[in-house]
């Protein structure tokens, strides 16, 4: 039993592909349509519902490693004018000694070998990335970078710090993630659909300033909603536990929410939450929350806000697995500091004082008396639940049931018609 996962734009061909694969392999095929989260991720949950033993993923992919099922990626082969791409590269990099790393969208990976044959004789310091599907065995070799499902042998270039990046593909989340992660490199791109190249004018520093503003918002937050944006990427359960522990030590309350694809209407239902953190793949974690009622940050931004041991170094992390214990970017939590010894700081947004220390959240205090006592249920919930506290502060709390207070009566026929002209309403004589 094999699950075939198609993005929305390829669903029209799903039935034909499934029929041919069943006739060829003899295996039972199931077509996965609308995925719970981003279509670039493998939907292992939907595949397990039908008892699939493997998944064939079609279309663009973020190449995040999966937890359980073996996956075969079919990227597709979008057309690429290699000659035109070579001309654009020469125009953007007239110096033949330029140190350039060539990246591409997965749908153009099939043409990178031909492009390499055209450029390597002219540019001795050019490096082409290779696509990696899943985790490769063993750690990365010295001078080798493995990130975003790509392998970059940059030892001959002396590292990525002084290299330029040339991206083959359209503008999108993948390019944005590359530019934020390698923000010290200059980027240029070639769009195969239009045949034009350009130096990327996206102000990365301005984008980073926006993200650092969200870090300050996360420092002010008291209630944090952890959004589960993936159920298939390896390590998502570990990072959920890591974020809960981080928030607990920072003295903040947290809720874990599984709402599928987040949108402003869904998240507006949780008014008591001050800020959300999205656990998703590297491409979908950079959510533009300008239209949301509450901002949405990444796990790295939340750790910048809550872990004093982690300092901003200029390197932005979009893969949440880099934060887990054992990863190269993991930073241990410092020991707890008593509240009396903590050094308070001032919020840059509200101007109010806040405690900048790690401590255990206060436990709910039980009544000193050991005898049975009648307690207000709302007050008891408010001591342990920020949602109940928020509900207690609101003037309107929903419709009251008034059980036992409403007299019993028979059902009667109500009004008929539309709101502007009910049948029992009198009409003015013209």
Automatic annotation (TrEMBL):
MF terms in GO: 2-(3-amino-3-carboxypropyl)histidine synthase activity; iron-sulfur cluster binding; metal ion binding
A single GO BP: protein histidyl modification to diphthamide
Cofactor(s) the protein requires to work: [4Fe-4S] cluster
InterPro entries for the chain: DHP2, DPH1/DPH2, DPH1/DPH2_1, DPH1/DPH2_3
Origin: domain of life: Eukaryota
Job of this protein: Required for the first step of diphthamide biosynthesis, a post-translational modification of histidine which occurs in elongation factor 2. DPH1 and DPH2 transfer a 3-amino-3-carboxypropyl (ACP) group from S-adenosyl-L-methionine (SAM) to a histidine residue, the reaction is assisted by a reduction system comprising DPH3 and a NADH-dependent reductase. Facilitates the reduction of the catalytic iron-sulfur cluster found in the DPH1 subunit.
Assigned protein family: Belongs to the DPH1/DPH2 family. DPH2 subfamily.
PANTHER family, alphabetized: 2-(3-AMINO-3-CARBOXYPROPYL)HISTIDINE SYNTHASE SUBUNIT 2, DIPHTHAMIDE BIOSYNTHESIS PROTEIN
Record protein name field: 2-(3-amino-3-carboxypropyl)histidine synthase subunit 2
């Amino acid at each position: 039993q094999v699950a075939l996962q198609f993005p929305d734009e390829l669903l029209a061909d799903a039935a034909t592909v499934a029929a041919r694969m069943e006739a060829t392999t003899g295996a039972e095929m199931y077509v996965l349509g609308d995925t719970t989260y981003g279509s670039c991720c493998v939907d292992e949950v939907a595949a397990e519902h039908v008892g699939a033993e493997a998944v064939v993923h079609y279309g663009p992919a973020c190449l995040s490693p999966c937890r359980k099922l073996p996956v075969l990626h079919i990227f597709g082969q979008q057309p690429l004018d290699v000659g035109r791409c070579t001309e654009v590269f020469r125009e953007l990099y007239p110096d033949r000694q330029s140190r350039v790393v060539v990246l591409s969208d997965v749908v153009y990976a099939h043409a990178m070998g031909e492009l390499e044959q055209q450029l390597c004789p002219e540019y001795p310091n050019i490096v082409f990335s290779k696509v990696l599907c899943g985790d490769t065995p063993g750690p990365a070799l010295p001078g080798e970078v493995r990130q975003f499902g790509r392998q970059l042998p940059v030892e001959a270039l002396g590292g990525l710090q002084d290299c330029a990046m040339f991206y083959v593909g359209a503008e999108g989340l993948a390019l944005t993630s590359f530019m934020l992660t390698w923000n010290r490199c200059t980027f240029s791109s070639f769009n195969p659909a239009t045949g034009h190249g350009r130096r990327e004018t996206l102000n990365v520093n301005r984008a980073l300033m926006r993200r650092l503003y969200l870090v300050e918002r996360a420092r002010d937050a008291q209630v944090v909603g952890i959004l589960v944006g993936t159920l298939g990427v390896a390590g998502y359960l570990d990072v959920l536990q890591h974020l809960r522990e981080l928030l607990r030590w920072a003295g903040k309350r947290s809720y874990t929410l599984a709402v599928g694809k987040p949108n402003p209407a869904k998240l507006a239902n949780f008014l008591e939450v001050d800020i959300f953190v999205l656990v998703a793949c590297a491409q979908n974690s950079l959510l533009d929350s300008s239209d949301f009622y509450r901002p949405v940050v990444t796990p790295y931004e939340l750790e910048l806000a809550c872990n004093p041991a982690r300092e901003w170094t200029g390197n932005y992390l979009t893969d949440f697995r880099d934060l887990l214990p054992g990863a190269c970017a993991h930073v241990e939590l410092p020991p707890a500091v008593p509240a009396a010894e903590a050094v308070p700081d001032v919020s840059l947004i509200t101007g109010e004082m806040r405690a900048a220390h790690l401590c255990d959240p206060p436990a709910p205090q039980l009544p000193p008396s050991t005898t049975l006592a009648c307690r207000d249920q709302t007050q008891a919930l408010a001591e342990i639940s920020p949602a109940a506290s928020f509900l207690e502060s609101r003037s309107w709390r929903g419709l009251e049931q008034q059980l036992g207070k409403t007299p019993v009566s028979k059902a009667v026929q109500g009004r008929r018609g539309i709101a502007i002209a009910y049948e029992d309403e009198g009409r003015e004589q013209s």
